[in-house]
Amino acid sequence: MATDLNILSANLNEAFSGKVVSLVEYLGELTLVVNAADMLGVFTRLRDDADLRFEALVDVCGIDYSTYGSELCEDGKYLPDAPRVGARFAAVYHLLSVTHNIRLRVRVYADDDAMPVLNSVTGIWPSANWYEREAFDLFGIIFVGHPDLRRILTDYGFVGNPFRKDFPLSGTVEMRYDAAQQRVVYEPVTVEPREITPRTMREENYGRS
Amino acid sequence: MAEIKNYTMNFGPQHPAAHGVLRLVLELDGEVIERADPHIGLLHRATEKLAEHKTFLQSVPYMDRLDYVSMMLNEHAYVMAIEKLAGIEVPVRAQYIRVMFDEITRILNHLLWLGASALDCGAMSPMFYTFREREDLMDAYEAVSGARLHASYYRPGGVYRDLPDSMPQYQASKIHNAAAVKKMNESRQGSLLDFMEDFTNRFPGHIDEYETLLTDNRIWKQRTVGIGVVSPERALALGFTGPMLRGSGVVWDLRKKQPYEVYDRIDFDIPVGVEGDCYDRYLVRVEEMRQSNRIIRQCIDWLRKNPGPVMTNDLKFAPPNRESMKQNMEELIHHFKLFSEGFHVPAGEAYAAVEHSKGEFGIYMVSDGANKPYRMKIRSAGFPHLSGLDEMVRGHMIADVVAIIGTQDIVFGEIDR
After folding, report:
1. Looking at this predicted complex, what is its ipTM?
2. Residues in domain NADH-quinone oxidoreductase subunit D (chain B) (predicted)?
């Protein structure tokens, strides 16, 4: 596997010279970072190049990096403890090549924090359709060129992006059946936010003598 | 001539053949489906968000509730992601136990699938037979973890405890007299391994029984042959994995191609289909049960001969045993820290995938060095399958939708997460 990763990283550096922002191997997994502007060209080549042949898109995962490394938590929301360096939102693509039996992770950061926009890869891998809808729903990342960018997991008429770090764990609304009105009504949430085990950071090798 | 218009129909969310809470909006031309739009999320519990607010150990039971018919396989991917990130060595005996329970879980899942999807197509009896065998396997779950379904038996670093030496026994009751109970307890006199060995002896015969009911059954074939055909290229592009991909003839199984735990030491075969229709996927799953049976037998043989630890001895991740915890200060501190603050996983990211009974089930874990994951993404197998439903059902009849939902082995716990 390790030699395969070396060959793959050499192939990637050759194929995308100048477009590779970073290429890191960690725990036997290769992570490629490319710019949002280059992503469609890179992904198409990743699928079609005979040395790469990533036929399957296994997963697309949205990430909100705003509180990375922070311990702060208030009202069920995680908060940043220092001004952030770099973009807030990213989409992480997990690719699989059945031909070469190898995996690759590609991370693309969305440049604008206030309105994260990325290109849709549904034209390259149809399986991206629902994954991008999910990232749109949960993180508010907009995928340009997606044929049907609707919410997917949350309720009809839901407001907000629940997996952002500044969205409280207990949510903002709760619903119940109102016997008088004979319908389901939405009300502001009454759950008290609480954190039983606080989030803590420790130095490396903490507790090891 | 009357004007013919397309009309839309709601299928579910309260429909027994929707396998849970699927709301499917079907656009119909007569009885032919023009477009299917699955609305999911009715079972969305935000497991990934909950995991961000729980320590690593506290999230293990949540994993059982994802795909609630293959509980231990979900746990397996989760603990593997943590082990990869933290660099925890798992004892070999624990790996064999995990492989054995993975396969028990796979049989559990396929038995439920077989009964339920046959029932969807009108065959009543397989359900009764498959649930008879599921009962034995759930007894194995209960013997080892105390729970029949949501086991939370796998832990980062190994498994919760070693296999028990005795099986729980049936008691005489109003329904069963002493003679009946004695007969029921016959296979439960020895250890869990004896019980499982007895099961593996019986089980191939039981599979033959199911096959007698279905494989050459004319009605079953009419409902499944040529229905929901997916070409190999299309299956890959749509992100299909597991039996859905192998049914289309792609030889892809993570247990063989990217072996984890001790699968590389075990002898088994990967069945693949030819046509890529519902019938081939049925045959693939039935053969998978036979292969799982083979794997379980090999695990039993190895586990009998090789006693040993089932949990890593690194006290930063594994709890100390009760006796030393009550006598030794350091162990007491370890125990306290482990169950209050939890352990810390080094910063980094890792993706761990297992060959789940439904396909590739992966956990993508991002840690920033805290005692809770920074972000955890669950790559469930059923999610891309259901997204491909629209393409699979176009041009088919309404009744075929039921057969195709059945063949996809949809479970909403993992799709909605």
Report:
1. 0.89
2. 120-417
pLDDT at B112: 92
With 0-12 / 13-18 / 19 or more C-beta atoms within 10 angstroms meaning exposed / middle / buried, residue B411 is buried
pLDDT band at A13 (very low <50, low <70, confident <90, very high): confident
Q: What is the 3-state secondary structure (H, E, C) of B148-206?
A: CCCCCCEECCEECCCCCCCCCCCCCCCCCCHHHHHHHCHHHCCCHHHHHHHHHHHHHHH
pLDDT value of residue A53: 86
Find the farthest-apart pair of alpha carbons in chain B and give their distance in angstroms, rounded: 90
This prediction has a pTM of 0.91
Query: Which residues of chain A have a CB within 8 Å of the CB of B332?
Result: none
Q: Does B344 touch chain A (CB under 8 A)?
A: yes
Q: What average pLDDT score do residues B26-36 get?
A: 88
Provide the pLDDT confidence category of residue A1 given band limits of 50, 70 and 90. low
Residue among A32, A77, A153, A167 with most chain B CBs within 10 A, to mutate: A153
Q: Give the CATH number of the domain where residue B241 resides.
A: 1.10.645.10
The answer, for B255 touching chain A at a CB cutoff of 8 Å, is no
Of the candidates A68, A92, A126, the beta carbon closest to that of B237 is on A126
Domain hosting B306: range is 7-87+90-161+186-311+346-414
Contact A197 B54 (CB under 8 A): yes
Domains of chain A by range and CATH?
A: 1-154 (3.30.460.80)
Q: How far is A198 from chain B (nearest CA, A)?
A: 8
